[in-house]
Amino acid sequence: MISVNNIVKSFGGFRAVDGATLEIAEGSITGLIGPNGAGKTTLFNVIAGVLNPSSGVVRMDGEDITGLPPHTLFEKGLLRTFQIAHEFSSMTVQENLMMVPSGQSGETLWNTWFGRKRIADEERALRAKADEVLDFLTVDHLTHERAGNLSGGQKKLLELGRTMMVDAKIVFLDEVGAGVNRTLLNTIGDAILRLNKERGYTFCMIEHDMDFIGRLCDPVICMAEGKVLAQGTIDEIKSNEAVIEAYLGTGLKNKEAS
């Protein structure tokens, strides 16, 4: 689905991404791991159109999407979430979800005067869709809670719920488990697996929690110093000497042996 070919992203003389090449297969949940500064988030930002690459090509379903802006990629079904959730804090959870779809009739002044029935019909449909999403995520009890009052983990679920309000094809998750307690992390993991298996979502996720990665992801790609270092199953990655040296540390190796 996504093909990344020899992407370079430089900031001055520093190459944050240095010739990264990888494939994200349709229907997969691909994990992206690596030490801080490995270039993971920068690569996400290049794929998602937040940053233009210095060189290289990104393709989606064979189409060159290199440098396309995020709103164009959004329309094509490529979405991303952020390590720090970006919610409308004064709006309810339901209202946050209803804001997601673009091109709503109420966005134009003409329709607010002459298209009120159309706007009302759309809002009813969006409200029903938002309620269905919250039920799917098992957080329907938060429907009318202000988003600013949510815990960190609940905000991550809200971010995931936003991707369900449109026809997402592939979702890039940036540390969806960061700062989330284990119970909510399991809920998030369950939702990702269900979206993948039941609705055909493709995911690529940056994550440092190796147990979470191991539960969800195949394949797992490891980056270091802006390059793709290794790719394989979680067990292959854990036993890869180059990965252990660059990222996982001897502690994991000793733990696996004990």
Short description:
With 258 residues, the protein is of the alpha/beta class. The chain has ten helices and ten strands.
Kindly describe this structure:
With 258 residues, this protein is of the alpha/beta class. It is 41% helix and 22% strand. It contains 10 helices and 10 strands. The strands form 2 sheets. The protein has a 6-stranded mixed sheet, sandwiched between helices. A 4-stranded antiparallel sheet has the order 2-1-4-5, covered by helices on one side. α6 packs parallel to α7. The longest helix is centred in the middle third of the chain and has 21 residues. It is globular, with a radius of gyration of 20 Å. The C terminus is likely disordered.
Tell me the structural class: alpha/beta
- Radius of gyration, taken over Cα atoms and rounded to an integer in Å: 20 Å
Shape category: globular
Major β-sheet strand ordering: 6-7-8-3-9-10
Distance between the termini: 39 Å
Instruction: Give the tally of β-strands.
Output: 10
Low-confidence stretches: 250-258
Average per-residue pLDDT, rounded, comes to: 89
Helix content: 40-55%
Tell me the fraction of residues in β-strands, as a range. 15-25%
Please work out how many helical segments DSSP would assign.
10
Order of helices and strands: EEEHEEHEHHHHEHEHEEHH
Largest sheet, if any?
A: 6 strands, mixed
